[in-house]
Predict the structure.
Amino acid sequence: MKADMVKPKQARKPSVTKSGKVARLNAHIDPKDLTTIVAAFTSSRSGTSLISSLLDGHPWVATTPDDIMMGFYVFWEEFGDLESGALIGAFIDQFGTLFNGAEVSKNPKSSACYGENVGFTTMGENRNQILSADVDIFRSSLKEMLPREKTVIRRFFLQALHVAYADAIGHRLEKGAVISIGLHTPSRPVAIALTEDFSDARLLHMVRDPIQTLGSHFRTFMTGAKNMEPKASLKVVRSRFLSGFPALENVKFQSRAVRLEDLHRSPKRTMSAVCGWLGIPWDDTLLHST
């Protein structure tokens, strides 16, 4: 399995009702039914983008591109008390990369996750496509699901936005779908917030041989424009060798680790095990990176 085995997702054209209104692709999905969520965590350069891109073509998985949503809980602290219409507008404004991969997100934690930095402008078989989603469909879908002119609880907003994003990219979900979210860094505050909203949250830690992931990190971040301060490299060394630790002691039994080496050597066996853990059926899309 290689990260460059790309099979682009084909977006479906939205259908139109007799009234002229665009029918939502996932109108059959109640956001509240998305009760299972899996968060992909990393210690850097250990394959979270790869496993996320394998999951996101699955009809039982509602997701957004890896890393962009790592700033979701920072966003909520600032904007979560807005009424639904203003909240939707703030979300779109803060996470512009979701709709145009070349655009820098205003969210401080997600601001580096755009463009060529993470491959969002070099997608597709010929590496000449830009990540995109229909922002108008997203807005109208989310508006339809949220109560008008009222505040929304964080859990429901997270559920609804994933259904709306599936509408926006033409990804039809099956009933019983799970949410996959790339929170990236397994920080304690993020893990606490996630498990407050979803008590049975699944925490998926990607791990890799420490020497290999450390070398990959230095090669990526200590050359050219991404040059790293020598002092920061010591923190990198420490975190590389602590990868795979549960974010919270009380959720260790809800946590699993996937070795990047196993994903490369035995992709079907590894992804089948992930499916069993998440309670979703096998689908051949799990062997193709989007």
